[in-house]
């Protein structure tokens, strides 16, 4: 009897948490706590949300003045970077934004569509990359 292989579809979205951020004047690195809490909350949010997102930590996202920083990314979608995220208080807002972000075709939303504190802690929104290739004079096409 042949064995049947199952494959897991890769996540289509990514949440990245800075693990190097420190509270001012402290050695505390709240990014590790945030990463653990966010993973747990996304798993509890259910298959519809949690399965869409890969959640990982990274050593630095250059948001050192606004710890903790969290980025949302997906192919063909705007990327968001949020700062001043509190691992104890902001998990619900991060999960709600994940649900909303997953539903957006291009990832673009106004600040009023971002839940809670995320309305005011957006550090950057980067449009999806669009690559334009123009023919160079004298080149083969």
UniProtKB/TrEMBL annotation:
InterPro entries: DUF1636 (IPR012863), Thioredoxin-like_sf (IPR036249). The lineage of its organism: Bacteria, Pseudomonadati, Pseudomonadota, Alphaproteobacteria, Hyphomicrobiales. This is DUF1636 domain-containing protein.
